[in-house]
Amino acid sequence: MVCTRQHVIAAMRGAVRAVSECRDELVELDRAIGDGDHGENMERGFLAVDTQLRLASPETPAAVLKTTATSLISSVGGAAGPLFGTAFLRAATAAGERETLDGAAVAALLRAALDGVTARGRAERGDKTMVDALAAAVEAAERAADEGAGPTGVLRSAATAADSGARETIPLVARKGRASYLGERGAGHLDPGARSVALLLHAFAETGGEQ
Amino acid sequence: MVCTRQHVIAAMRGAVRAVSECRDELVELDRAIGDGDHGENMERGFLAVDTQLRLASPETPAAVLKTTATSLISSVGGAAGPLFGTAFLRAATAAGERETLDGAAVAALLRAALDGVTARGRAERGDKTMVDALAAAVEAAERAADEGAGPTGVLRSAATAADSGARETIPLVARKGRASYLGERGAGHLDPGARSVALLLHAFAETGGEQ
Amino acid sequence: MKKIINDPADVVVDALRGMAAAHPDLLRVRTDPAFVTRSDSPVRDKVALVSGGGSGHEPLHVGFVGTGMLDAAVPGPVFTSPTPDAVRTAVREADGGAGTLLVVKNYTGDVLNFETAAELVRAEDVGVRTVVVRDDVAVRDSTDTAGRRGVGGTVLLEKIAGAAAERGHGLDDCHATAQRVADNVRSMGVALSAPTVPHLGEPSFTLAEEEMEVGIGIHGEPGRERVGLESADGIVRRLLDPVLEDLPFRDGDEVLLFTNSMGATPLSELYLAHGIAERMLAERGIRVTRRLVGPYVTSLEMRGMSLTLLKLDEELTRLWDDPVRTPALTW
Amino acid sequence: MKKIINDPADVVVDALRGMAAAHPDLLRVRTDPAFVTRSDSPVRDKVALVSGGGSGHEPLHVGFVGTGMLDAAVPGPVFTSPTPDAVRTAVREADGGAGTLLVVKNYTGDVLNFETAAELVRAEDVGVRTVVVRDDVAVRDSTDTAGRRGVGGTVLLEKIAGAAAERGHGLDDCHATAQRVADNVRSMGVALSAPTVPHLGEPSFTLAEEEMEVGIGIHGEPGRERVGLESADGIVRRLLDPVLEDLPFRDGDEVLLFTNSMGATPLSELYLAHGIAERMLAERGIRVTRRLVGPYVTSLEMRGMSLTLLKLDEELTRLWDDPVRTPALTW
Ligand SMILES: Nc1ncnc2c1ncn2[C@@H]1O[C@H](COP(=O)(O)OP(=O)(O)O)[C@@H](O)[C@H]1O
Ligand SMILES: Nc1ncnc2c1ncn2[C@@H]1O[C@H](COP(=O)(O)OP(=O)(O)O)[C@@H](O)[C@H]1O
Ligand SMILES: [Mg+2]
Ligand SMILES: [Mg+2]
Ligand SMILES: [Mg+2]
Ligand SMILES: [Mg+2]
């Protein structure tokens, strides 16, 4: 019931597929309250991740996460690039030298990712950003880990909570990101970055565990 | 059965009204095979004629025609301005010192107008321009005058013939004016300038005679 | 009709007022009749360059008034040539005693009205010569028709003849230079959408989502043929081929390539098309030594572009390089 | 989607290639990563000005590279900020040893990516300072939100800070000048139609025939409110009032008025609006002493305009008047 370097790579490959499949959905969400590029940005970023993972053959979970981070930072641009990049970078640091991750370690990685995103983007929960999904996910992940869940269990709980966290952005008025320019008119729409968080966590839960 | 200075003024006033009423029709015709401004051009021109006739109080038929010509030249712009301007200028010259015009004189004026237009625009009959209507009108006017018709009779014949002359432009491919840029695609449309000639002659026939 | 205007009847004069406010150092603007002159007009003993035509092609001609280019420009109503009276008044203000060169685009209305103006001015003992620009290869070149339209080549001619005048060349010499430009310049345009004339309120023509109009003029008059939308490569080839064949331009020629926006084409698309044209010319051995890229001869908010090629010689190149200072062109 | 392009994925690089062809004397263009520098970069011992941001706003920023303005510009994908790596590479080519001033428009993406770039560059011992432009009064000015966007004011800042750098001012001094512009400039825009991002293929939003979007940004993101189309007087007042109140600008102030087209607005409409703005400012005793009119900060083929007011002082005026030579701005 642990997660190896192979699992982390499989999780990232799953993310590449999931992001490509949901590109248009993300575009539409971002068109409604942003500038319509979020789907493109995520797809470009994860295609770069895919390429770099092949080229770099990272040896540890941390190395996989770091390659993911630098690929995103150097290919995405936009707000999502540095934010998701920082998230994976902090997760890599949290993973340290470990060869395998248990449920508690996965939860700790997610917490580190959240801290990175809020340090970078200065968004609080309720600002209608990816933070809303990620914070909900971290709480659920920590609860699941406390209850003894393994990596897949932790990721499943995180993904389900991220769905709720994302859904909760719908009625909100954004205070960060482009959607904030809309004021009241942004209420009633799902935040694209929050949706991406949920999407990634589902992909990780499906492919990153002990299959 | 003669046409006085008063009649000529009334004829011009009738033309002002007729052109205003048909503005949109002329616009549509010009939009199809030109640049869509012929209605505007004619309206602007005849409103200037109206104003100048009030200001100038011309004393002879020739003076009325000359005021009309200079008003058109100095207000219309476009192809129609110098062409109709020249037409009225030559008609004025042909009217000379005469206080009244009989049928033969009216026919002679129309002939002079046609000569002016062709001298200026170098269009021949069949080039799909105002010349097609005016040339047909002149021939009919001369026939009517030969048969002893008075000014109104001459103008009526001219107007009816101008209608046919204008209609005959429909199948033609233009060789002069903007419609010529269209080549074959211009066939099937009535020439706006030819329609204007018919319009003016009808207005003259209704108001410029011995009422 | 989506326009930033007040009364459609006043658009020309209202825009001129804004130009006057924007360029007090360069321009003097009159509104009745409407025309624009250099702020230092008349320039004593310099040949005056005067042009004009229907409005709606801005910056042509009003944006090219200034040192090294036009002395005066006479804008008519939208897409309608100005009257002889307006041209005459402008010439009177611009002529500095060395005569006036009239630059006329070949449209029946412009030719006739400027002809009449030239007669009026000559009667006042001002030396006048006229050059007619007819560079649009989309139209059949023939003497028994209205003949070719004047389009993009006009800007190049005004710049080069303007430099000749600024150098102090005489009227006949300026005319000869202008005529050399006219003889060596060819253009062709394409539209992706139609313009809307303010007082008409509706687009001049309609194009389906996947159509373009090849051989378009600059008045919203339809073009040579309507075809399906193509890639930038395809579009540029459709414009370049007939232009090259016409003069013809040959292997080894030095040319000025002018890539012009019809108004609403994003600058990025224009540069993209320009790059393709340069590549295609290089493939044929034609050397692009000077270039101009931008919205200089427009048709209101029409989307589309035109390509203009001018065959250069040493003198034309030198005159092109001469300084110019106008609202739309400065170096 | 009606565009003059080949593959939508290549529009940025294809347009850069065209720019390189069009301005061989002014620019050097790289395509991987994509950025543009002055042809004489790095200029030894001069502070380098580097800016960038999403593409689709041309001529911003690439058209402002040249003497007296930017040393390098880094265009991201359409409406998406460039990556830190691209910015770092551009700074490396542009920095002449006197440090680099980064000009960043206030969007989360730009701020974060340029922040990361600044860290990378600092690690390489290049002096870097950043100025963030946030002039769009349509957005609430607040620290607990993303805050105001950078729009038209960016051009004025790049021109003025560029002149300071060209005069040999040091990095801190250039930064202070840039910050003074940022503090004294305010803008607001309106859209009459939406832009279409090439790889999306559909307009970013839709406006009914009689609607306009007030307080629009430059990315096709919706604006402050959607209202019925108004006359030019009404539109200009809607833009000018909030701009004037914000700084606030007062009776007696000397200002630069920048009337900007969002891309597809005919130049005649832009001048018309400019004239109205000058009149309204005169009525309030505000003295327009410098002006800029044209399509300088665009949103692809969006129709609409923005007004920018910069409160001038003697030094800013002098720096504005300094010579500049770039593809889009030259005097
Ligand atoms: N300050 C911020 N903190 C956290 N997330 C943010 C912040 N700003 C924006 N985001 C997230 O980024 C998403 C938009 O990303 P994207 O569309 O790729 O970039 P851009 O907004 O630059 O176009 C938003 O939906 C939001 O979730
Ligand atoms: N060379 C010519 N000779 C005679 N009539 C002409 C000539 N050229 C154009 N016309 C007439 O002028 C009409 C168009 O006038 P108008 O639309 O007012 O001017 P423009 O063509 O300049 O827009 C045409 O319908 C045609 O009848
Ligand atoms: Mg976005
Ligand atoms: Mg017409
Ligand atoms: Mg016309
Ligand atoms: Mg973006």
3D architecture notes:
The complex is a heterotetramer, with 2 copies of chain A (211 residues) and 2 copies of chain C (331 residues). With 211 residues, chain A is mainly α. Helices cover 69% and strands 2% of the residues of chain A. Chain A contains 9 helices and 2 strands. In chain A, helix 7 runs antiparallel to helix 8 (151-167) and helix 8 (151-167) packs antiparallel against helix 9 (192-207). The radius of gyration of chain A is 16 Å and the shape is globular. The termini of chain A are close together. The longest helix of chain C is centred in the C-terminal third of the chain and has 17 residues, at 267-283. With 331 residues, chain C is an alpha/beta fold. Chain C contains 8 helices and 12 strands. The model of chain C has no long low-confidence stretch (mean pLDDT 96). In chain C, the strands form 2 sheets. In chain C, strands 1-2-4-3-5-6 form a 6-stranded mixed beta sheet, sandwiched between helices. A 6-stranded mixed beta sheet of chain C has the order 9-8-7-12-10-11. The two termini of chain C are 37 Å apart. Chain C is globular. In chain C, helix 4 (153-166) packs antiparallel against helix 5. At the B-C interface, helix 3 and helix 5 of B face strand 4 and helix 3 of C. One adenosine-5'-diphosphate binds next to helix 3, helix 5, helix 6, helix 7 and helix 9 of chain A.
